[in-house]
């Protein structure tokens, strides 16, 4: 009787999860169907077969959005993880008031994707912003960073790097799990700090690096708010901040081409799944586990 009561209690606590599952499964299969239709949100969807996917081959703006997203991901993810690891190593050496520093560095991760922070970022890198004001002290005339096609994406990459707090906290937890005796033995053998980092820290921290890498890649491919706010929803200037999700939003909710937007969503799913699969296949060559 006690076991049955415990089982029922478990099922009761799982009910909210099962209820939420409906809100994921139904849209999942609905978008799969809509990807093969011509649907404008106002009239019933009409079956179109592979027409949406064929249209993608000649869609210049879609190709540009893919380029912007790939550049953003391939630059911002490794740089942000490197900064997060470097800060975690510094904090791991024993800093007075560690909890305070950890909270300060983690805070941008909570706020970096918010509209308010992106608006602040646009002000900082504006033509009359604080960044150009600082450069003027050295006689340098800075550009209008957020409205210059050559620099607009760079400012968003810097914003992403600034939000290194979440992986930093995970790195710090991983560093705390590495036994100190490994470093003591290496020091007695005359290993330098760089040698210790390369031969002890990186191999034992590789599962944490792998986890942060997969999480960061998935999140970066889903970037939307930063590009939308910095460009007022246009993806400008000259489509330099036209992220893939932003273009998907434009097609689905600005042009009411929800069938095409659904096909774009499935293409994004395939891209993210492909990168994740590559990471898991490559992990066997550089991720170290105790077994």
SSE map:
Layout: H1 2-34, E1 37-38, E2 46-47, H2 51-57, H3 60-92, H4 98-111, H5 115-124, H6 130-136, H7 152-162, H8 165-176, H9 180-188, H10 193-221, H11 225-230, H12 244-254, H13 258-286
Helix pairs in contact: 3-7, 3-8, 3-10, 3-12, 4-8, 8-10, 10-13, 12-13
- Give the overall form: globular
Quaternary structure: single chain
Structural class: mainly alpha
Question: CA-to-CA gap between the ends?
Answer: 41 Å
The biggest beta sheet is recorded as: 2 strands, antiparallel
Uncertain runs are none
* Strand segment tally: 2
Helix content: over 70%
How many separate helices?
Answer: 13
How large is the share of residues in beta strands? under 5%
- String of helices and strands: HEEHHHHHHHHHHHH
Q: What is the averaged pLDDT score?
A: 88
Sequence of strands across the biggest β-sheet = 1-2
Q: Please compute the radius of gyration using only Cα atoms.
A: 24 Å
Structural features, described:
The protein has 291 residues and is mainly alpha-helical. It is 73% helix and 1% strand. It has 13 helices and two strands; from the N terminus they run αββαααααααααααα. The chain has a two-stranded antiparallel ribbon. A hairpin with a 7-residue loop joins strand 1 and strand 2. Helix 3 packs across helix 8 and helix 3 crosses helix 12. The radius of gyration is 24 Å and the shape is globular. The two termini are 41 Å apart. The mean pLDDT is 88.
